[in-house]
Amino acid sequence: MMNSNGEAQHQRIARISAHLNPSNYTMEQGTVLGRINCRSKGGASGFKVAILGAAGGIGQPLAMLMKMNPLVSVLHLYDVVNAPGVTADISHMDTGAVVRGFLGPRQLENALTGMDLVIIPAGVPRKPGMTRDDLFNINAGIVKTLCEGIVECCPGAIVNLISNPVNSTAPIAAEVFKKAGTFDPKKLMGVTMLDVVRANTFVAEVLGLDPREVNVPVVGGHAGVTILPLLSQVKPQCSFTPEEIGYLTARIQNGGTEAKAGSGSATLSMAYAAVKFADACLRGLRGDAGIVECAFVASQVTELPFFASKVRLGRTGVEEIYPLGSLNEYERAGLEKAKKELAASIQKGVSFIRK
Ligand SMILES: NC(=O)c1ccc[n+]([C@@H]2O[C@H](COP(=O)([O-])OP(=O)(O)OC[C@H]3O[C@@H](n4cnc5c(N)ncnc54)[C@H](O)[C@@H]3O)[C@@H](O)[C@H]2O)c1
Ligand SMILES: O=C(O)C[C@H](O)C(=O)O
């Protein structure tokens, strides 16, 4: 009869033998050690997070940063290409989250089942000279398919939508969920955090402050004039010259073109922003109080059905949407321009599903 040390050793040998036998490898389990219940897996507490488009320019650093997040116990990495390699690479990080990879549509169901939070950076990015709306024809279909998967496998999950054009893809997601009867406006957020991250950085440069001390609300949407920084509401309280306002507004609105200097679109700062926002969502789900961030959500703040503004995140997702507060004349003019473009982008997304 084996003593408990002998038993443990026997199990370790069995695990290693399984690891050395390639027939035991299944992509869905990410690594063989994951498949055979590796004892180094994270604790049972924590949230289950899926990244769809995890092998891409945003997806990879986003996956790495989420693997480092102590609130994450399980991390599912889904893509239509290269998911095995990215998963193996990230799974070697000695942090708590268990990582599993999923490749291609046949594995989408397993990637999504049981998830608390689904982050979607899947789809094509802009090339020089393109607008975000030029991505619509390809990305609308991708987002639709992935959201249909969410309907089937994790209809109660929080969804963070990154794929552009966000002003249309978030309404597309909402329409897919409405059609299936699973739409919960508290759970769907278009990610506009990068606009806030940029605004904090650029404003801090002008004011000579540490960006971590600066908070700039950015409302509206996530493309050109729909990106509306409210410089009159910057914290800490401050004032700007008209030249500074013109410079900052233009730089924040065109940050996406500045990033990567015309050779692609932002990936690293976006991954940082996505993780900052996802972490806020997870802290909200955990029940932390007072978590306020900007996001593009189903809203009654204006006459438009979707709008980005400050929201409070809690156990059920978006628990409160804040009004815009008082705007100066420059911002009121910007709001009118933003609403005009936003209305068309939202309608384009809605029509894509209702057509
Ligand atoms: N919301 C924002 O602030 C923001 C910021 C930057 C980029 N973006 C957008 O994010 C998207 C991704 O950008 P990127 O630079 O990572 O692009 P990328 O091409 O590097 O990566 C996209 C990934 O999506 C995958 N993909 C394609 N179709 C898929 C599908 N059906 N299912 C799952 N995965 C699929 C690709 O294989 C690829 O790995 C783009 O639409 C870009 O415009 C948004
Ligand atoms: O500009 C882009 O196309 C990507 C993204 O939306 C960004 O703001 O960086």
From TrEMBL:
InterPro entries: L-lactate/malate_DH, Lactate/malate_DH_C, Lactate/malate_DH_N, Lactate_DH/Glyco_Ohase_4_C, Malate_DH_AS, Malate_DH_type1, NAD(P)-bd_dom_sf. Its EC number is 1.1.1.37. The keyword Oxidoreductase applies. Keywords: Glyoxylate bypass, NAD, Oxidoreductase, Peroxisome, Tricarboxylic acid cycle. Residues 192-352 form the Lactate/malate dehydrogenase C-terminal domain. NAD(+) binds at G53, A54, A55, G56, G57, I58, G59, D79, N139, I162, S163, N164, M270. Substrate binds at R126, R132, N164, R198. It catalyses: (S)-malate + NAD(+) = oxaloacetate + NADH + H(+). The active site is at H222. GO terms for molecular function: L-malate dehydrogenase (NAD+) activity. SUPFAM superfamilies: LDH C-terminal domain-like (SSF56327), NAD(P)-binding Rossmann-fold domains (SSF51735). Residues 48-190 form the Lactate/malate dehydrogenase N-terminal domain. It comes from the Eukaryota. It is found in: Peroxisome. Homodimer. Belongs to the LDH/MDH superfamily. MDH type 1 family. This is Malate dehydrogenase.
